[in-house]
TrEMBL record, chain A:
<keyword id="KW-1003">Cell membrane</keyword>
<feature type="transmembrane region" description="Helical">
    <location>
        <begin position="68"/>
        <end position="98"/>
    </location>
</feature>
<keyword id="KW-0472">Membrane</keyword>
<feature type="transmembrane region" description="Helical">
    <location>
        <begin position="110"/>
        <end position="134"/>
    </location>
</feature>
<dbReference type="Pfam" id="PF00528">
    <property type="entry name" value="BPD_transp_1"/>
</dbReference>
<keyword id="KW-0813">Transport</keyword>
<feature type="domain" description="ABC transmembrane type-1">
    <location>
        <begin position="72"/>
        <end position="278"/>
    </location>
</feature>
<protein>
    <recommendedName>
        <fullName>Phosphate transport system permease protein PstA</fullName>
    </recommendedName>
</protein>
<feature type="transmembrane region" description="Helical">
    <location>
        <begin position="192"/>
        <end position="213"/>
    </location>
</feature>
From TrEMBL, chain B:
<keyword id="KW-1003">Cell membrane</keyword>
<feature type="domain" description="ABC transporter">
    <location>
        <begin position="4"/>
        <end position="244"/>
    </location>
</feature>
<dbReference type="InterPro" id="IPR003593">
    <property type="entry name" value="AAA+_ATPase"/>
</dbReference>
<keyword id="KW-1278">Translocase</keyword>
<dbReference type="GO" id="GO:0005315">
    <property type="term" value="F:phosphate transmembrane transporter activity"/>
</dbReference>
<keyword id="KW-0472">Membrane</keyword>
<dbReference type="InterPro" id="IPR003439">
    <property type="entry name" value="ABC_transporter-like_ATP-bd"/>
</dbReference>
<keyword id="KW-0813">Transport</keyword>
<dbReference type="GO" id="GO:0005524">
    <property type="term" value="F:ATP binding"/>
</dbReference>
């Protein structure tokens, strides 16, 4: 040992190290514990009330039927439609930002600023905007379409940012390799860069799906709360999260509590499943690349 | 006959004067080696020959680079140019797809769809790059499964699939072990019969072994050029002498 090291301070240092280790370990443990606690709480209260009839059944306000099938269908519509709007625009914007725009140019700075600002706006503000603009001004009414357009704006920043990151992570050597063969820029992007960035893009889409499923305020302000399966995108529909919100407004009987927990259970399982799917797809795509 | 003729070329990366008044002729179907210490401009010059420097922001160029007498910095189709002047990079860069698809990539980009044509080009190119026997049974497996040396020969095969006239090689063996390097050098001896080759190398032994002509660069300037044996055995400039004798670099 070096003569300059005082054995006493060295010992103190070791104690400090141990303490710090315990602190970070403890923090991690608390995080996991909380997560497990929440999941367990919901599942233990809700799982026993989830049945085939509950999932596939119809719903009536008065209480003789409490199924959530219409909400599940509305949720799926909402996810698909908002992604149909946001994914192409978001992915193409990200392509523009990473592949075409000059680094640090005015245009890039403006778009970056816009996406970052968009991401920071509270979602209920989107709801208010959607209700004014899509529902009233454009006359789309309280409908799946109004909701999907509003949510598309909400998830656009997420898609742009994550896709951008995925594109930037694609090795420069692929671009060089493509161009050196005389390939056009668009061909190189389409056939080489995008496929390599696919795991990241898929992740961004699934993250957005989670976001769409999770939102409540901007959804009921634009898509309404009708508890029937919408027959077209111009009809109102109630997503699962909105349904849960609505249920929690009127918790008077044990039966209503049970319904709320059962709905929450379905939501949690759905989100866990989505996160799992992200992992599986990302690893699969990475392997095949 | 000169395939490429560079005259009075100056290149700036922003403020940095990276190439200073370079004039050099690249004769047809010979191997021309560009040597010199790191940062001397040899790779930069190589990348002006197929305009890969276009990808770098802030590059300014004056002077001319003529390919078969035509100025490539005039208003020409860069994609056409790059099909005729192929390139192999320092680090093997196979694409994340099968061996077959790697070779067929360039042709497919030009709309070639005929399976029979593609099959033939893939086989010919892999044979041309001395890789066919090693991979013929696994053309559909990912190119990443190949060893480093095989990957580099795959990249050479991918380049020659476009039937270029010139192949630019940017330190193609610097990431490879001696055995793989030896194979690439053997291959280059074959390739010179059909292609004009310009190679940037850090290894003076490699330049001696494989090149017909050598050009020595030093801080952005072309100090000396000529027949390889001439440059190595009877260098005219003291800096060339110092470098090829291993005194610095």
């Amino acid at each position: 040992m070096s003569q300059y090291i005082d054995p006493k301070t060295s010992l103190a240092r070791q104690r400090k190290d141990k303490l710090l280790y315990k602190a970070v370990w403890g923090a991690a443990a608390i995080t996991i514990l909380f997560l497990l606690w929440v999941v367990w709480h919901i599942l233990s209260n809700g799982l026993s009330h989830v049945s085939w009839e509950f999932i596939t059944g119809a719903y009536t306000r008065i209480g003789e039927a409490s199924g959530i099938w219409a909400m599940i269908v509305s949720t799926i519509y909402m996810v698909l439609l908002s992604l149909a709007f946001a994914a192409p625009i978001g992915i193409m914007t990200a392509i523009y930002l990473t592949e075409y725009a000059k680094l640090g140019s005015k245009m890039v700075q403006v778009i970056r600023f816009c996406t970052e600002s968009l991401a920071g706006i509270p979602s209920i503000v989107y709801g208010l905007f959607g209700m004014t603009f899509f529902v009233t001004t454009l006359g789309l009414g309280f409908s799946i379409l109004s909701g999907a357009l509003t949510l598309a704006m909400l998830i656009l920043p997420v898609i742009i940012r994550t896709t951008e990151e995925a594109l930037i992570a694609v090795s420069m050597s692929y671009r060089e390799g493509g161009y050196a063969l005389g390939c056009s820029k668009i061909y190189t992007i389409w056939r080489l860069i995008l496929p390599s960035a696919l795991p990241g893009i898929v992740t961004s889409i699934i993250l957005s799906t989670g976001r769409v499923i999770g939102e409540s305020a901007p959804v009921f302000l634009t898509a309404g709360m009708v508890t029937q399966i919408p027959e077209s995108v111009l009809e109102s529909g109630r997503t699962l999260t909105v349904h849960l919100y609505k249920l929690t407004q009127e918790l008077f009987t044990q039966y209503e509590w049970d319904q709320a927990y059962a709905t929450a259970t379905v939501l949690i399982v759905l989100i866990l499943f989505l996160n799992l799917a992200t992992k599986v797809i990302a690893t699969k795509l990475n392997k095949s690349a | 006959m000169n395939k490429l003729a560079v005259s009075n070329l100056d290149l700036y990366y922003g403020e940095n004067h990276a190439l200073k008044d370079i004039s050099i002729n690249i004769p047809s179907r010979q191997v021309t080696a560009l040597i010199g210490p790191s940062g001397c401009g040899k790779s930069t010059l190589l990348r002006t020959l197929n305009r890969m420097n276009d990808l770098v922001a802030g590059v300014k160029i004056s002077g001319t680079v003529a390919f078969e007498g035509e100025d490539i910095y005039a208003d020409i189709d860069v994609k056409q140019l790059r099909m005729r002047v192929g390139m192999v990079f320092q680090k093997p860069n196979p694409f994340p797809m099968s061996i077959y698809e790697n070779i067929a990539f360039g042709l497919k980009a030009q709309g070639v769809k005929d399976k029979a044509v593609l099959d033939k080009v893939v086989e010919d190119s892999l044979r041309g790059a001395a890789l066919w026997d090693e991979v013929k049974d696994r053309l559909n497996s990912p190119a990443f499964g190949l060893s480093g040396g095989q990957q580099q020969r795959l990249c050479i095969a991918r380049a020659i699939a476009m039937e270029p006239e010139v192949i630019l090689m940017d330190e193609p063996t610097s990431a490879l072990d001696p055995i793989a390097t030896h194979k690439i050098e053997e291959l280059m001896d074959e390739l010179r019969k059909k292609f004009t080759i310009v190679i940037v190398t850090h290894s003076m032994n490699q330049a001696k072994r494989i090149s017909d002509r050598t050009a020595f660069f030093w801080m952005g300037e072309l100090i000396e050029q000529g027949e390889t044996h001439q440059v190595f055995n009877h260098p005219q400039d003291s800096r060339t002498r110092g470098y090829v004798s291993g005194e610095f670099g």
